[in-house]
Each structure stands twice: as C-alpha cells, then as structure tokens.
Amino acid sequence: MKQLLYFSAPWCAPCRMLGPLLDELSETYPIRKINIDNQPEIAREYGITSIPTTVLLEDGKEKERKVGPQSKAYYIQLFK
Questions:
Q1: Helix (H, G, I), strand (E, B), or coil: what is residue 49?
Q2: Helix, strand or coil for residue 24?
Q3: Which residues 6+ apart lie within 8 Å of 57 measured at CB?
Q4: 2-78 maps to which CATH number?
C-alpha cells in the first residue's frame, strides 16, 4: 500500500500554497499531513531538513522524496 507523508508548517509560504492541493487529493489518496512544529520526532525520523517535503512510502518503505511543491499531476502519478 502506498502512502504520502507531507511535512509542512503553518509559517511556511510554499507549504501554504501546496496544502490545499494535498488536502484535495487526500479525499482520494492516502496522504498524511505532518506539522513539523507539532510532531518534530517524526520529522527527525525521516531526516526532514527542508519543507515542504513529501515522502512516498510503499509497504512502509520510502520509495520517493521531493522537496518543494510539485504539480497535481506529479502527486496523482505517485499513486498509479
């Protein structure tokens, strides 16, 4: 099973741009939003140093990682 982890923070301008898109996609795809200020232990576990960062997990293992906003088509393609 695939899951997308979305690391962000409310003070991050690019995160505020990407957030609504991933909120929309989360209605169809398994996307977990992680606020690095509220959940720093998860950010450390995944070695997050820049936000926004998305990490695609497949069967619990990291398959792909991107820093910065991407297109809607990119995120949809991850789940194909």
A1: coil
A2: helix
A3: 2, 3, 4, 5, 63
A4: 3.40.30.10
d(CA 41, CA 36): 8
Share in percent of the chain as helix, strand, coil (round to 5): 30, 30, 35
pTM of the model: 0.94
The answer to whether residues 79 and 2 touch, using CB atoms and an 8 Å cutoff, is yes
Rounded-to-10 torsion of CA 54, 58, 63, 69: -20
Q: What are phi and psi of 66, to 5 degrees?
A: -135, 140
Q: What is the pLDDT of residues 51-76, one digit of tens each?
A: 999 999 999 999 999 999 999 999 99
Q: Which residues are catalytic?
A: 12, 15
Helix (H) / strand (E) element for 41: namely helix 40-45
